[in-house]
Amino acid sequence: MFSLHPKTEFDIDSLARRWLELGPPFRPSADEIALFDLALRSLPKDSPVLVIGDSPELRDLTAKYNLPTVVAADNLSNILAMRQLRRQSGGHPEKMWVVDWRQMRSDKEKFVIALVDFSLNSLTDWEDYGLVLGNIYKLLQPGGKLAVRIGLFSPQPARLPAEIIGDMLALPQHKFSWWWELVLHSQASIYDKDSFQLDLGRFFRYQLPRLYQQGLITDEHWQAVSGYHFYNMMTVPSESEWEEMARMMFDIELKKTASDYIAGDQVPFFILKKKGRG
């Protein structure tokens, strides 16, 4: 889960409210929820599903199709908070794994599909992608699938910060998409191309105030964007690096992007099919 404030302990109600404050790309859009729905609707009855992360939107989908679901996340409070936001309840009780995804394994549970919504980007090391993908691979049945939405590195936008924030003010429903573009604009100082690490904390602590001091954004712009402070370090690989890693274990069956928010083309959705019989 992505945090909007400096590291602070929140109660379950506060965690739920924080999630509702977010928008795409940090939460799935309607188009992206429809893509995950597409991955589930044709599954056989009672197909077991693994949800990586605590997204209430994905958990609603598995309940919609009455699929037995395991939710794997490293924070029990987040899992319980997101449960409050679910709108559907299926016939199967939801299981919870409070686990570090890098150490996730089970000899008993095998899944027909795993769902991952933007969660991989919260990993702080590119090597961890391989560990987590490998663990998901082992937890899938032969021919099992992985439906995943992931933020990928994009070229620096040519537009100036003032133009981006101007759009944010005009179209507030897309404000998180504009923030994503603002972050990309500053990538020279906050993105490490060797490790694929994107330091959102540095952007809000140093880069954004610098743009303000340089007069590149106005007082109105500053007020629009300075209220939220992401402290996370994200790992955002390039498209080619991500697909090369994925193809080591999976075949790419589907690749699509959302068209209902500004940065949708930078956060593609994939359906991957497990290779081999292991």
Give an overview of the whole structure.
The chain folds into two domains: 12-152 and 237-274, Vaccinia Virus protein VP39 (Rossmann fold, 3-Layer(aba) Sandwich), CATH 3.40.50; 161-235, no CATH class. Helix 2 (30-40) packs parallel to helix 3 (56-64). It has 278 residues and is an alpha/beta fold. The chain is built from eleven helices and ten strands. It has helices at 12-21, 30-40, 56-64, 76-84, 126-139, 161-170, 175-185, 187-190, 200-213, 219-225, 239-247; strands at residues 49-52, 69-73, 95-98, 111-117, 140-149, 191-192, 197-199, 233-235, 250-256, 269-274. It is globular, with a radius of gyration of 19 Å. A hairpin with a 4-residue loop joins strand 6 and strand 7.
The helix/strand class is alpha/beta
- Following the backbone from N to C, one meets helices and strands in this order, namely HHEHEHEEHEHHHEEHHEHEE
How far apart, in Å, are the first and last alpha carbons?
31 Å
* Overall CATH class of the largest domain: Alpha Beta
Q: Count up the helices.
A: 11
Low-confidence stretches: 1-9
Provide the β-strand percentage band.
Answer: 15-25%
- Looking at the overall shape, the CATH architecture of the largest domain is 3-Layer(aba) Sandwich
State the helicity in percent bands: 25-40%
Quick check: average pLDDT?
83
